[in-house]
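WARN retry 2 of 3 for item q-0093 after timeout on previous attempt; input resubmitted unchanged.
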Amino acid sequence: MINMPKVKLGIAAVSRDCFPKSLSASRRGMVVNACKEKGIEIYECPITIENEKDMLAALDDLNGAGVNSLVVYLGNFGPETSETLLAKKFGIPVMFAAAAEEFKDKLFDGRGDAFCGMLNASYNLGLRNVKAYIPEYPVGTPDEVADMISEFIPVARTILGLNSLKIISFGPRPQDFLACNAPIARLYDLGVEIEENSELDLFESYNAHNGDRRIPSIVKEMEEELGDGNKMAGILPKLAQFEATLLDWAENHKGSKEYVAFANKCWPAFQTQFGFVPCYVNSRLTAKGIPAACEVDIYGALSEFIGECVSDDAVTLLDINNTVPADLYNSDIKGKYDYALTDTFMGFHCGNTPAEKLTSREMKYQLIMHRGLEPDKEPDITRGTLEGDIAPSDITFFRLQSTADAKLAAYVAEGEILPAPTHSFGGIGIFAIKEMGRFYRHVLIEGRFPHHGAVTFSHNGKALFNVFRFLGVENIGFNQPKGMLYKTENPFM
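OK item q-0093 returned
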C-alpha cells in the first residue's frame, strides 16, 4: 500500500533514582526480546533515563535512529518529570507501559513498583497536557507488554498518517447531501489539512491530460484487472486519463503534507461534462492506498484513510443502504447463520469498491443515473462503475464525523459480509452485524450520522476505538449487546 506511513518503533526505559537502574534496563531487554520473538521490530535505546540530562541524551539517540513511534517503559517506578518531558519533546505517538513483578522471591530486593509509578506518569501527562497512548491494562510481563506494543502499531501508524494528511476535495456536495456536511475546524484539530477546489479546476486539469503518455499503460492495467469483466472497453481511455489527472493533482498539491485522500463530486453534472462516471477510478486509487470518497464526503475520505492505516489493507466507503428482503433472508441466511433479519442490511455504492474485494467484477454503467440522464438509449456518459457482489469477509463498519455543531463523534461495529447473493446492482454485499437494528436506531439515527460508512475487511474494532479515544472523541458508539441499553432506548420494549 502506498500513501501510508511506516512505523519505526523505539523503546526507552526509565528508572527512578532510588531504584536499581539495572532493574529497568534488564526488564527493557526482556521486552525487546519478546518483541523479536513476535516479529516486532523495535529499536532499543541504550540510555536508561533517570533525570532530564538522560532524557535529552535519549531523545537525541532516538531521533538519530529514525524512531517515529516511542514506547516509554517503566521498568520500575520511574521519574515522572523526565518520562513525561520525553513524551512531550518526542511528540506523538508515544505509548506508556509498565513492568509487572515477576517472582515472589524478587519482592524484597527486586521489586520495581511500576504499578504505582504508572499512576504518577498518567497524572503528570495530564498536568503537562501531553497525549499518550495507554493500553487498556498497561502493566504486564515482557510477553504481555510486547502484545501491547503490537496493538500500538496500527494506532501509531494512523496518528502519524493524520498528522501528515491532506484531504483534497472537488466541488460542493450534491443537492440534498447535507448529511455529508464537513465542518473543517475539527480537521485542523486532528492535524489534517484540507484543500477545497471547484469541479471546474478538475475539469481543466482533466482536459490538459488529453493524450497523456501514461494512458495506454493505465488502460492495459485496467484490462488485466477487469479480465472477462471488461464489458465496456471503449470507456477505459477516458477513465485512464482521469486517473492520471488525479495522481498528478495529488503529487502536485501535497504541499507540506506526505499523504493524500480525495473527496470528489461525481454527479449530477460530472457525467454530462466529463462523459463518464468516476467510480472505477475511485476504486483503483483506494486500492493503491489513496482513498477517493464519492459525493464530496470529506469525513468519509478521512475515515477511509484511518481504516487503511489501521488495517494495512484496502477499504471501501458504502451506503448503509437497504434492508434484506424477508424471502432472501429466509432462503439464504435463516438457519445457516446466527443472525436475525434485523441484524442484516445491504451495503452499497455505485462501483467504488476495489476489485480485489469483489467475488466477480464487471465494468458497467450507473443504473440510477442512466434512468435520468440517458433514458431509452444505450449507456454512454453513465459508464464507468465497477460492479459485483462484495466477497465474504470479516468487516468493521465505522466512521469519524464532525457533527453539525462541530464536535467529533464516531462509531465502530464489527461484523461480516455473508456469502449470499444480493440479486442487485452496484458494488454491494449483505452485511451482518449483531444487534444492527438497535445500533441503527440508537447510534446511527440518534447520533445523526450520514448514510456513508467506511469498511475495513477485517476485525479492527479495538484499534479503531483506541484511535478515536486517542483523538479525544468523547462519543464513540458501538453495537451494544442485548441487555445493555442505549441511553435513548426504551426499557419497556
